[in-house]
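debug: dumping io for the single-chain case to check the tokenizer round-trip. Nothing else runs in this session.
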Amino acid sequence: MKVAAVGGRGPSPSFTRAHFLLAFLTIGASGLIGRQALAREAGLGEGAARTVLRRLRDGGYVDVNASGASLTEKGKGVLLSLQSKLLPIVALEKSRLTMGNEQAAVGVRGGGRSLGNGIAQRDSAIMVGASGATSYVIRGSNFTVPGGSTDCEKDFPTGAWKLLRKRLAPKDGDVVIVCGAQDQLRAKLGAVSAALTLL
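debug: decoded output
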């Protein structure tokens, strides 16, 4: 995130910390990805994609050549560290878990210690174009809502809970953020942006 905030001459960059982190995660998941594909996957314009790649390269996290961008050993180390805290992004079909036609979920290990009421996470998601976000804390083995349901699977039955358990394997004290938006990209960005408030 320090690399994302590096200043420079010229106009302010047209991307957020969420775009930057999603771009980094996309490079890690792809192994090797071209700039245009990265721009599309991370919701970046061409110029912003160049800036993100330049900052990651200058920080020693990414190699960039004619074939595309890939993580360096340093970048792979950071990715491993991130993956110990940030659970994979999961695409969901429209569900009752939050608002929005397209939904994405992400988990934060131990995020329950600093979650609060979930409003900061919702607001962070909305700032990057999402419709909203709902944060669930795992208490024991239950999905709970701060100040609300202590067993969401029982109170709001849907097949999405089973998918989240299978893909994220959340543990006691983890937070699962479900973000909704008009399209899957904004839902992912919103989920990442919300998760950043807990990292």
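debug: round-trip ok. The beta strands are 62-65, 68-71, 90-92, 102-108, 132-139, 142-144, 175-181.
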